Amino acid sequence: MTVPNLLTLLRLALTPVVAALTYSTTAPGRTWAFGLFLFAMLTDVADGWVARLPGQRSRLGLYLDPVTDKILLLTMFFVLADIDLIPLWMALLMLARELIVGGLRSAAAASGKVVGANWMGKTKACLQTACIGVGLGAIAFGLETPVAETSVTILTGFTLLLAWIFAGVFVWWNRALLGGE
To answer: Which of 4, 89, 139, 161 could form a disulfide with 51 if both were Cys (CB 3.0 to 4.6 A apart)?
Structure first.
C-alpha cells in the first residue's frame, strides 16, 4: 500500500465523520466538521504530490483518488442542501455532471483509452472545495445568516455553471468516443 493510497483511504474514512459532524448542534462539532474537511482536502493535495515521487503511483490510486474526491465533495454538497444552505437542485446538478463526465471516462476506458484529469477538472474541484469550505465555515462560526446562505448559494451557482461549461468542453474534446466523429 503506497502512502498516497493511505492518504486517499484516510480521506474516504473522514467523509462520513465530516458529514455527521456538520449536523452537530454544537459549535465545537461544527468546527470539527470544518477543520476535518479542510484536513481531508489537504490530504488530496498531499497524495497528489507524494504520488509524483518514484514508486508511489499505483493502479489503485489512479482509480481511488478521483472516486474518493467525488464521494467527499458530492456528499458534502448533499449535506449542505439538507441543512438548507444551498438548494437541493444544485447538489443534484453537481451529481449529474459527475455522472456524465465519469460515464465518458468509462466509455474511453472500455475502448482502451485513458482520459485523465486536466486543468478544468482541477479548477472545478478547487471551486467545489471552496463552496463547501465557505459553507462549513459559515456554520462553524455561527454565520448562518441570510447573507451567508446567499453567498454560499451564489458561489455554488457560479461553480456549477463553470463545472457544466467545463463538462461541455470535455465532452466536445472527447466526442469521438461517443461516435460523433
So the answer is: 4
Q: Where are the domains of the chain?
A: 3-178
Residues 59, 114 contacting (CB under 8 angstroms): no
CATH architecture of the domain formed by 3-178: Up-down Bundle (1.20)
146 CB neighbour count, 10 Å cutoff: 7
Torsion, Cα 73 74 76 77, to 10 degrees, reads: 120
pTM as predicted: 0.92
Give me the amino acid identity at 162.
Answer: L
d(C-alpha 15, C-alpha 75), whole Å: 8
pLDDT in tens, 106-157: 888 888 887 877 899 999 999 999 999 999 999 999 888 899 899 999 999 9
Which residues are within 8 A (CB) of 42 and not within 5 positions of it... i.e. 6 or more apart?
A: none
